[in-house]
Amino acid sequence: MRELVGCSFWKKPRQTVAVASALREGLMSSFAVWRRASAPFALLALAFGLHARAATGSDALPVTVVLDYDHSQSGTSFLAMQSKLDATMHSAGIQLALRKKDTLTKTSEFESLLVFKMKGTCSMSAQNHEAPSRVGQALAMAFTTGNEVLPFGEVECDRVRQSLQRVLGMGAHSEEDERLYGSALAVVMAHEIYHMLTNVKHHTREGVTKERLSARDLLDGKLPLSNAARSALEQRVNKIKEPVPLDTKAAS
Known about the structure:
alpha/beta; Collagenase (Catalytic Domain); 9 strands
């Protein structure tokens, strides 16, 4: 099957670089991000004052993924997405949790934070009002500034649905179809999370992080992280968890 999809990178203003670095190292105490008028990604969703949380001491690195939905979403697909993402990233030492933007408060705390704008309607039962997606269109993207991959991205929910419908059929909107859709969204997001956490733009030759994924890849519930991707993520996790050395000069 030649129905291929991929990811892309969008450049964002330089003002977000410091925010990205602080989030990636888990050293953020508070932040606010302002949206550029021409930017399609609603970063104003983050203008809260979120606080970093002290490390829990667990072997796995807690990473919270905040989802900012355009429209309604399927509860079944959300649970399937959470389960698939957690299982995929756990093998690399990452404990992933999803949070919807509208459940956050000004006192919400996170150790490490990523944010996705969920564009369109994230459900298999939604009507396809958009033009049919074309072969090769990106299903998700991560934002960048220069060589820095930022912890902000977008998922094209309508394109993911249309891609699966080419295999499952236009009438596919049962509970099982919603579960498969949530698992497919998780694959797309895991691909971008790899870029965000490792701060690399290149892809691996196989697995979730290969350059292009077919609709059948998205429906494959066993598509894993490649050894190369797992190794890169583990190295990043270990670096983030390294204890910060004491400033002996300041102490004396």
